Amino acid sequence: MKKLYILLFLPFFGLNAQIEGNWKLAPQAGALGVGPTVGDISWWSNSTGDITTRACLFDDSVRFDPNGTFNNYMNGSTWLEGWQGVSPDGCGTPVAPHNGSNPATWNFDAATGTLNVVGLGAHIGLAKVINGAEITSPANAASSIAYHVEFSNGGNTMTATINFGPGYWQFVYQKTQIVQAATPLITFKVNMNNYTGPAFTNVYVSGTFNSWSGNANPMTDANLDGIWETTLPINAGAIEYKFSLDNWANSEQFAGGETCTVTNGGFTNRSYTVVNDADLGAVCYESCSVCTANVTFKVDMANYTGAAFTGVFINGTFNGWNGTTNPMTDANLDGIWDVTLPLPNGTIEYKFTLDGWNASEQFAGGESCTITTGGFTNRVYTVAGVADLGVVCYESCVACISGLEENAAASLTLMPNPAQTSFNIVSSEVITEVELVDLSGKSVRKVTGSTTEMNVNVADLVQGMYTVIVRSENGTTTSRVIVQ
């Protein structure tokens, strides 16, 4: 319960910090204004000259202490009006209870933007303005007033509005001690793995923020993975930049119109608007997107013995484990299914599946090609460029063992292979039975006999790869045949 309490209230305290401190009316025209709706001060607003003629008001301050205490400070003089017993209006000694003499507190509801000052006579802006009215006597002072406040200028400007009945007053305050926002830190990254230009030694980021210097901001490839990066403090606002090589020996070239670029004065550069700290991610040199490399995956279904299937698919982190997004093909009908995909550099997890997710590879964990995360064990690979991962057996990190001979002394010849109507088997042992098994594990043909040479008819079989099991008196020999 204690942890829940802290988590719920941390945001509240963080937002309160925007208000804490000393504030004065902004020394500008329109710091005080009134009108029919929020933001409309067309009925009246102070002029630039009023900042001088009402200097006793503009030097007043209000203080919001972190402990919740609120104070009005008037430095012995403030602006007084006729309802306070003076004529004409002008600077004078503050009149109770609007002189800050009574204890007061404050609180802020961040969800609604409501600031409450609580205490007889406590106020911001003009003392006469309370919720729903303008008072006509100090005796009518309110014991609490609610304002709607919004912040701007990095939290250094506070605009308060209050409905007094016929319209809205607006008061614009500034912090007396400006809080300088930290300069945003921007991380730039560029992937050079697909770069095919002249050799280079160093990569730099050049832009409006460093006067397009060719060597002011070098980048580094600390991991030696071809991704160069640097983090720079850059003031908020729009910037243009590009990645350059060896002090402008070469640089990115864009056609114009790319989503990450802007063209000004005949030059096309990357563009970005700095607001807060940001990591812009690794983009490919001369591209708005990440680098990709063609990776070829191959799986041999020769040893698969599960339920029948129609198609093999590859599923992984790169396609959201979608099921059927990336089908594989067996163009040679040899039981080896493959697909080539353009993938971004980085580590991926994946596995081979059948007919979407009707079946999928299952691993025990700890295999050399797998990783176990969150209770799931998948194949793992780090993409670093164009690659052919070679043929692996379904549910294995290595290739299928073909031509396995349980009777090592026996020799076997199978021809023709591929076969269209039939094939012959010649063995050094007397053959007692030949069995054909399809990729689903189903036995589709058995031929028995007692000879060293046997013919097997396959004219009626579906095209594809079959496991041939040759049994003899001394053991079993396994091979494969392709039926076309």
Explain the overall architecture.
This protein has 484 residues and is mainly beta. It has four domains: 2-175, Lipocalin (Beta Barrel); 185-284, Immunoglobulin-like, CATH 2.60.40; 294-393, Immunoglobulins (Immunoglobulin-like, Sandwich); 412-483, Sandwich (Immunoglobulin-like), CATH 2.60.40. The protein is 5% helix and 45% strand. The strands form eight sheets. Strands 1, 2, 3, 4, 5, 8, 9, 12, 13 and 14 form a ten-stranded antiparallel β-sheet that branches. Strands 16, 18, 19, 20 and 21 form a five-stranded antiparallel β-sheet that branches. It is elongated.
Blueprint (SSEs and pairs):
Blueprint: H1 2-16, E1 21-25, E2 32-35, E3 44-45, H2 50-53, H3 55-58, E4 61-64, E5 70-73, E6 78-80, E7 90-92, E8 105-109, E9 114-118, E10 129-130, E11 133-134, E12 144-152, E13 157-163, E14 168-175, E15 185-191, E16 203-207, E17 227-233, E18 237-245, E19 250-251, E20 261-264, E21 267-274, E22 278-284, E23 292-300, E24 312-316, E25 336-344, E26 346-354, E27 359-360, E28 370-373, E29 376-383, E30 387-393, E31 412-415, E32 422-437, E33 443-457, E34 464-472, E35 475-483
Parallel strand pairs: 15-22, 23-30
Antiparallel strand pairs: 1-4, 1-14, 2-3, 2-14, 4-5, 6-7, 8-9, 9-12, 10-11, 12-13, 13-14, 15-17, 16-18, 18-19, 18-21, 20-21, 23-25, 24-26, 26-27, 26-29, 28-29, 31-32, 32-33, 32-34, 34-35
Features:
mainly beta; Lipocalin; Immunoglobulin-like; 4 domains; 3 helices
Any idea how many domains? 4
Q: What gross morphology would you assign? A: elongated
Average pLDDT confidence is 90
β-sheet strand percentage: over 45%
Could you estimate the helical fraction of the residues in percent? under 10%
CATH architecture of the largest domain: Beta Barrel
